[in-house]
Amino acid sequence: MSEHSGASPSSTLRTPEALIKHGLAEPETLSGLQALAEQFSIAIPPAFAALLKPRSPENSDSACNADPIGLQVLPDARELVTAPHERADPIGDDALSPVPGVVHRYEDRALLKPLLVCPLYCRFCFRREHVGPDGGLLDEAALERAFTWFETHPKVTEVILTGGDPLMLSPRRLKRIIRRLSGIPHIQTLRLHSRVPLAMPERLTEELLDALETEKAFWLVIHANHASELTPEVRQALRRVQARAIPVLSQSVLLKGVNDTVESLESLLRALVQARVKPYYLHHLDAAPGTAHFHVPVEQGRSLLRQLRGRVTGLAWPTYVLDIPGGAGKVPIGPDYLLAEEQTPQPPSGTCKATDGEQFRKRRVQATDGQEHSFT
Ligand SMILES: *Cc1c(COP(=O)(O)O)cnc(C)c1O
């Protein structure tokens, strides 16, 4: 074990030097990490730093490879390699921005990105070239233009606050934004996407939660990728949110080495349901530059979900979605259970035989791709 590994940092780690000081990177890698840090921001808050596996001499080369938390937040030289199919704006948001900070792709809803700061910087983020600690705060004039855009688009009934991470705003600023949007008659729903409840649960103070008060429907969508992110502190913070009658959903990204096995995905989904959080989306990875090492093939994603159907409660079932490159939007790409030729629904795994009461968990299901899958 490294001599530093025991000490958990008390503030967010933001530099290669800080990572080395805390035993999270080797001193020899400093210059490489500095080059990387110039392109993609680093931030590992204490709650995530505490979850990192300590490095050890046996796995020093691949320490972060073995760690589903480390993989998500520790910079990696592979991020500087751009695969041929990767693009800076993989889902085509830029072309759909009528005014700065607003993205409008669907008729009834639009994104508002009041800032581009995050509590941590995910190494696989599709906005990773835009987000950062000093980026993208909409000033008063820009916010006013965004509000005016919403006021003049009556078909838009839902505002999705995202970024960056809107819960990194001060309670005062957040309250002003929520008040202002709530005052627009045709806005019915406010939705906020955030990693703060997992990355900085201590930030969810009563003051910050007061800022979320509105007469309109308010939904929170958290972003969790591994069961270990749902610590007792995180679950308590979620309870404080839920106590305010705010429903909480989650989205996850399917990531190689993080949640690409049946076991890891099942634990994540179960941990969410136990925290009263409804899994909403499982995202297929967007092809942002330098993220190829996280790629899981679509067929593997479909197979994972197929294996979970029936095996875990329906409450835990997320919609597996792909954001079509170029701006066409999200589409469900999960497994099919209806064989096209016969229109016969296929049974899921984990079902019980009703006739003789005998329980069986192992069965073979002929999937629509013609392959036979055996489940235990
Ligand atoms: C993902 C996304 C939404 C929200 O889509 P839902 O399917 O309602 O969650 C809205 N606008 C844009 C531009 C998006 O990328």
Q: What's the CATH H-level superfamily name of the largest domain? A: Aldolase class I
Q: What's the tally of helices?
A: 11
CATH 2nd-level architecture of the largest domain:
Alpha-Beta Barrel
CA distance, first residue to last residue: 37 Å
The H/E string reads HHHHEEHEHEHHEHEHEHEEEEEE
Radius of gyration: 22 Å
DSSP, total strands: 13
Tell me the strand order in the biggest sheet. 1-2-3-4-5-6-7-8-9
CATH class of the largest domain: Alpha Beta
Organism: Oecophyllibacter saccharovorans
Protein name: Lysine-2,3-aminomutase-like protein
Domain Radical SAM core: 104-319
Pfam families: LAM_C, Radical_SAM
Keywords:
single chain; 376 residues; alpha/beta; TIM Barrel; 3 domains; 9-stranded mixed β-sheet; 11 helices; disordered N terminus; binds pyridoxal-5'-phosphate
Describe the structure.
The modification N6-(pyridoxal phosphate)lysine is found at residue 330. InterPro entries: Aldolase_TIM (IPR013785), LAM_C_dom (IPR025895), Lys_aminomutase-rel (IPR022447), Lys_aminomutase/Glu_NH3_mut (IPR003739), rSAM (IPR007197), rSAM_sf (IPR058240). Belongs to the radical SAM superfamily. KamA family. It is built from eleven helices and 13 strands. 37% of the residues are buried. The strands form three sheets. Strands 1-2-3-4-5-6-7-8-9 form a nine-stranded mixed β-sheet. By secondary structure, it is an alpha/beta fold. The model is unreliable at 1-6, 356-370 and 372-376 (pLDDT under 50). 25% of the residues lie in helices and 16% in strands. The structure holds pyridoxal-5'-phosphate. Pyridoxal-5'-phosphate is lined by residues 103, 105-106, 109, 111, 160, 330.
